[in-house]
Amino acid sequence: MMSMKNRLSLGVVLVSLALSSMVYAQELKLGSSVEGLLQAARERNPEIASMRFDADAAAERVVPAGALPDPKFRTELRDITRMGEQNPTLLPGRVGSTRYLLMQDFPWVGKRGLKREVAESQAEAARHRATGTWVDLAGKIKTTYAELYYLDQNERLSREILDLMAQLEKVAQVRYAGGLAAQQDVIRAQVEQSTMRNELIALDAERRQLQSRLNALVGRPTSEPLAAPGQIRALPSLEQVSFAALEGRARLNNPLLRTEESQIRAAEKSRELTYKNRYPDFNVGISPIQYRGSVKEWELMVEMNIPLQQDSRRAQEREAEAMLAAARSRQEVVSNQILADLYANVAAFESARRSLALTTDSLLPQSELTLRSALAGYQTGKVDFATLLDAQRQIRQTKLNQIKAAVEAQKRLATIESIVGEEQ
Predict the structure, then answer these.
(1) Phi, psi of 308 (to 5 degrees)
(2) pLDDT at 272
(3) Is residue 374 a contact partner of residue 394, using CB atoms and an 8 Å limit?
(4) What DSSP line would sit under 134-146, residue for residue?
């Protein structure tokens, strides 16, 4: 009989193996959907982690920025020889007198609040930069996934055409054996197959490069395997992806614009703080004085700086005004560029969407009909092999254009989502 200890050990081993199998299965599925890749990037990408830590560090600067400086304590031992009556000593009870001084610096009214508000605005800017880094990374992942999907579909289509050419070769061989076609038809079918196999080799190399890039974006080792792309996301309607519908969302949510807005608020508060430097800061102290073993005197001290260096302060004020104007100009530049990029990508999305609809609804059925007609005509000797090859190439190009239009729409959609500040 197995002991209880051995049973527990066996149970732990089985649970570990089950968990390892589940993790391995999840790893194998990674790459089949863009959502899984985005989730993995959230958890693994070191750049995203770095930006989050930067944002956390900036948030921790808010409290110190508005805090009072640490108080100061001073001790003075006076007349340590008691007017020459004794040897020098450092005992407070044996010197002539001991002065204790406790001091605290106090900035002018409002300075602490302004420093805290500057730090808050900078922390907010850091959070928006982290968000901007994420939406930019998410857009790259979506784009690379779409490109990988295009290669996968292109490879499938190439294999389908390769099978079709093998069938056409058999038809050509039968017709050649019956003296109904030239041997050149068989050779041309074989050449087409060799060309397709060469294209498959190139597609495989390009796919490995894209997988390596996608792994790097996610935060995985570049040589790790990825599952084949399952499907791309459903495309929204043209009404949903219009410049009029997206302009307001871009102005409100774009991380770069939000970052610039936070920088403007920080510059405004820094300007106010600079003008506050026209007024003095204070240092307040209280001082008990000890004679022998008891405290017999108390002193109160107030100290302040005198803001006499007016030329220096005016220069600092002009610097603050210039920095605020620069921040506002940067926001205008960013806003104009973002809206221009949004308009261009919306126009490209609309073009790809219409091209996809035209190819799917019109060109592809016509190409399929042309191929079937050419194949039937070649079998009956009504058309030559060159016409059949042209029909095959036409349907392949049409299907490629269909895939290309769908992928182009996906890439433009990913860019639009990044511009309007959408994370998914």
Answers:
(1) -90, -25
(2) 95
(3) no
(4) HHHHHHHHHHHHH
